[in-house]
Design a protein that fits this description.
The protein has 267 residues and is mainly β. Helix content is 9%, strand content 48%. It has a single domain, classed as Acetoacetate decarboxylase-like (Beta Barrel), CATH 2.40.400. The chain has a seven-stranded mixed β-barrel. The longest helix has 9 residues.
Length: 267
């Protein structure tokens, strides 16, 4: 069965759009419990069954260059810069999507999503160089220096290890339409995107290190990526603004008989 993407909703005046150039997804296998400790109640890691018998989750660094990002309300105000999204593949109340641990943006306007939507974004210096057969990235930010170098092949993405089919591979890794993140006020933010089905190419990794994911305890500096994919350019619709959802309530601990002290003796 061929993956045909998701329906495109009618763009609204408050939505944004951008061209993503030199796009790459570098993914790692991670023990699900390491991811779960960063997730709120109701959000769980998606667990994949790999050919070696392992049952792991996946996290990705998604790297690209924004070109002409703008809101439809202000088409003349456009920005172009490097960006890295750090995400895990999850289910939120049964709904499939991605959890965003954080984003690095190489632009002073990173303060806008941080303040306006309380998103976990930070400033970083990001440099991306891409040729027909080589893709290279360096980044420097609060978590330290990161880098990644890929050799781009002419091979289209097929069924990758951990997935049952080509369709599931594409749907999960390249086409999550919904994402969630933890706001600075403790509530959960949600937003969605749309893009056409990617025509990504497989890559071999010559070197890779993402210190942001290391700081979270998800990978180490010696971890080898599960997979790497690239695409020269693709258009994205971003359904802004993100929606705020209440912070999940922690379950109350049961009170043992007599555990209320003096008040318990009044019962």
């Amino acid at each position: 069965m061929t993956f045909e993407g998701t329906p495109r909703c009618k763009p609204r005046w408050h939505h944004a759009s951008t061209e993503l150039d030199d796009f790459a997804i570098i993914s790692y296998r991670v023990e699900p419990g390491l991811i779960a400790r960063h997730l709120p109640s109701g959000v769980v890691p998606e667990v994949f069954h790999f050919d070696d018998g392992g049952h792991d989750a996946l996290v990705s660094a998604v790297v690209f260059r924004d070109r002409d990002f703008h809101f439809r309300l202000c088409p003349l105000v456009r920005i172009s810069c490097g960006q890295i999204n750090y995400r895990a593949y999850v289910r939120a109340q049964g709904e499939r999507g991605v959890w965003f641990f954080g984003t690095a943006l190489d632009h002073p306007l990173v303060v806008v999503p941080r303040i306006l939507w309380q998103m976990p974004w930070q400033r970083a210096q990001i440099r991306i160089e891409a040729e027909a057969s080589r893709w290279h990235m360096t980044a420097a930010g609060p978590s330290g220096a990161s880098h990644c170098e890929l050799i781009v092949t002419d091979q289209a993405v097929g069924r990758l290890d951990g997935f049952n089919s080509v369709s599931e591979t594409l749907r999960t890794l390249t086409h999550p339409a919904d994402g969630w993140y933890r706001r600075r006020d403790g509530a959960i933010g949600h937003y969605s995107i749309w893009h056409e089905v990617m025509a990504a190419r497989l890559c071999t990794t010559t070197s890779a290190r993402f210190t942001f994911l290391e700081e979270l305890g998800l990978i180490t500096s010696s971890c080898k990526p599960h997979s790497a994919l690239t695409q020269p350019t693709i258009h994205f619709d971003i359904h802004t603004p993100p929606q705020r959802r209440p912070a999940p309530r922690r379950p109350r601990r049961p009170v043992p008989p007599g555990g209320l002290g003096f008040l318990g003796q009044l019962g």
